[in-house]
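Retro notes
What went well: the complex prediction finally ran end to end.
Inputs used:
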Amino acid sequence: MKDTDIKRLLYTHLLCIFSIILSIFIPSFFLENFSILETHLTWLCICSVFVTAVNLVLYLVVKPNASSKRSSLSYKVVRFLKCCIYFLMSCFFFHVIFVLYGAPLIELVLETFLFAVTLSTFTTVPCLCLLGPNIKAWLRVFSRNGVTSIWENSLQITTISSFIGTWLGAFPIPLDWERPWQVWPISCTLGATFGYVAGLVISPLWIYWNRKQLTYKNN
Amino acid sequence: MRLGSGTFAACCVVIQVLGVALFLRGFFPAPIRSSSRTEHQAEPPAPEPSAGDRSNWTKLPPPLFRKVVIMLIDGLRDDFVFGCVWGVKFMPYTTYLVEKGASHSFVAEAKLPTVTMPRIKAMMTGSLPGFIDVVRNLNSPALVEDNVITQAKAAGKRIIFYGDETWVKLFPKHFVEYDGTTSFFVSDYTEVDNNVTRHLDKVLKRGDWDVLILHYLGLDHIGHVSGPSSPLIGHKLREMDSVLMKIHTSLLSEERDTLVPNLLVLCGDHGMSEAGGHGASSMEELNTALILISSAFERKPGDIRRPKHVQQTDLAATLAIGLGLPIPGNSVGSLLFPTVEGRPVREQLRFLHLNAVQLSKLLQENVPSYTKEPGFEQFKMSERLHGNWIRLYLEENNSEVLFNLGAKVRRQYLEALRTLSLSLSRQVAQYDIYSMLVGTVMVLEVLVLLLLSMPQALSNKAELEVPLWSPVFSLLFYLVFLVLSALHVIVCTSAESSCYFCGLSWLTAGGVMALISALLCAVVSALAKVFADGRLLRKNPAHPKARWSELDVLILLGTLGHVLSLGASSFIEEEHQTWYFLVNTLCLALCHELYKNCFLSDDCEPQPCSHVEQGLVSSEPALWDRNIHCNVSKPHRVSKSPTSLDTLRGYEKWMVLASPWVILTCCRLLRSLNQTGVQWAHRPDLGHWLTSSDHKAELSVLAALSLFVIFVLVQRRCSLTSKVAMALGLLGVYCYRAAIGNVLFPWQRDSKDISKERKANVISEKVKVLAEGCDQAVWVSRSHGAHLEARPTNGRGS
């Protein structure tokens, strides 16, 4: 891969981070009493929308997986619908996982679901944008030696770091510090966000560091 | 030397037990005990110093008070009585007594553990019980140590007790009359106190007792149920205040006839934390209120006193002197001097001398180098000065010199008492670090050895090489043994405090040192072997060695993390959450591993499959045995159905794939079955829902279903007669449960006729709700509650 590829990756990721930061500060101009901790659900929605939008725009503009075949409208619509369905399925899947981990089943359903939506935008949306609604491709990318480009490598890193961030974010919940951010799901969503941002920062650096050892099958 | 794995495991277990025993012996401090175990044989009290024949004060001084009433309110924190939030508002009579009446108020600091039984022991014996008593809190045997109650009974005092039945268990046969209430039903805070108060009127009118002890549990129960900020606390405090007023007025009216003062003690055994519980060492749990009320105490108008800070163990010595009894031998407390302020100087010095003699005797018996203790030196000096004072006094010299010398002696005594008390208390809390260290080293060595030799050490027929005779290791062994022995000698000869490990004979200590050195050599040899194998593995990658898979790493790190989390103080009472979390993570990792092995077959090795096989609970190992090895000749192929699962029949494959999810769902169900911990214990859980009386039908259905499933699962291997017998047995189980009312028969509707008791409870609940709004209703509920059937156990002892 060339250095320009890595630079493009870096700028894309910086734009994603910037969008998250925007989602923290911009709504306070339009809404009253907006804060991450108090109007948490609002912030979750806004953050998900921003990140989805940025991801869509970037991958449509940058087109890292240039595949120029069958661009008929019906195919595109079908693809889009499949993406939405996969996104919804992943939201439900994450919701079930959170309930199994101990989230209440009947109460706080909206909070749990919005957290699942957020985690899906951090993990599933980039997969959908980059690889399309193609389960085989996803399995290939997340298996041991299946990456074929630096974009897929960075996808691996950001997804895994989002998951690790969520996992670590669950640690403060049973502690007795009685802080407002220990309530479910705030600490986990903050953990997921930090994990995603950390993944976005680390992956271009890691790829740059290892650019000599990384060889892809298509290069 | 070759060891079979069974021998190895047994040796590890034995050494671990030894190490843990040594650690515990160092952790739980040796109790401070006086060697005189004579309960019935009264020792002659120490005579006045250097008085000889001229003093006729050789017996115990006479009691200061005729009657003593101890009103112990469980959970009485100091700011419930002295603070502005509760004390002034809800306890007006007590506040009047504290600020203007003839009383002395103190903030008595309890010591750990702040649980009722050890605190009662501390108050009555004056000694500091340790943590082991918490284990016995549920089933307390009689107290054999020297204590105020036993001394009072031996001196012929008549003691009446009403309250928590812990006292009856601690002091059987000591009470002339008693009525114990059980402290187990934490949700009841009215009846448990009414059971005490209902006797009060009768007892106060009678004159045939010397000591009356009342133990009120209601405040503590309210704290456990709803915490210190609930409005019920205010009502309870008001009730306690009115009881105190009743007792005090009765005692005052009695004194008008006899002119000898009585003593009323209001105290708490421990405080209450912010969450309403107790047991730990926060300030709120340690500080209790202690008020001594008697007409013998002078109070000039305008004399403003703030409550002084004292130790809870000081109460035993004060009560003993107040009742004219010998101070309990194990007491580490000092006399509360304000109680004897009004007495003549000679008596004051006599009391202080008795207390100091008792403390110094305890010090002599428990500290080997007691002559170097500053408290002892101060005591000796005070005794000498006291002797001088006595000589001056007996020469009928009433001058200024006598007065000044008396004040000086008093000051010296108080200083000596304080120092002695402090050093004795410190002895109890000292950890024997050396023994603890030795025990820890042993345990850690065995742990490292196990980790290094896992997994081949614990499989079925493994044999271990333990190279003990090779020259390198025997040299290392002797070297380490010499070093440890030298260390042992240095520590034991320089230790000032007593150390259990040093107290062992040289042979035993030498044996332990040899064991530690041998274990160290074994650890080093195992390490060397691991490194050698690692190098071998790197040179020859096809070497089939047990490598650590990701699952192993996760389990190891999770266990480490769990152990570390147990040391965090913020995790208290929520430790189970780590367990739930880690089990869930492990199940998901297993699921990932399983699906990876089933849907992707690239470069698979035998080990992960076998790990997966061992991890599955519901898989049938026989099927896997045939197909353990994945197809190595097809690398990098993303095939959906590898050979390992092909041979499985359809439903078994689905069972295998669904098993992690089944486990996860079961774990989630179990979590919501019973809420534990502190933060979320009040949330509704399935257990409560099922056992509440509205859902008997659901509980019956679930019980019947479970019994049926048990029958179905077990009946496969039974003959016909055992099947019939088992069916009848399970039916009998259901009938028994229906007979005692837990479940219903299908032809029974939910019984609509509420029993009389429940009706009364319902009414009292409604009244309680009203009572929270206005004051008048408090009186209504109290009188209503007195009409309900109270608990039994109204015993009359001999």
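What we learned: The interface with chain A takes residues 568, 570-572, 574, 577-578, 580-581, 584-585, 588, 596, 599-600, 602-603, 636, 638, 664-665, 667-668, 671-672, 677-679 of chain B (CB under 8 Å).
What to try next: split runs per interface for comparison.
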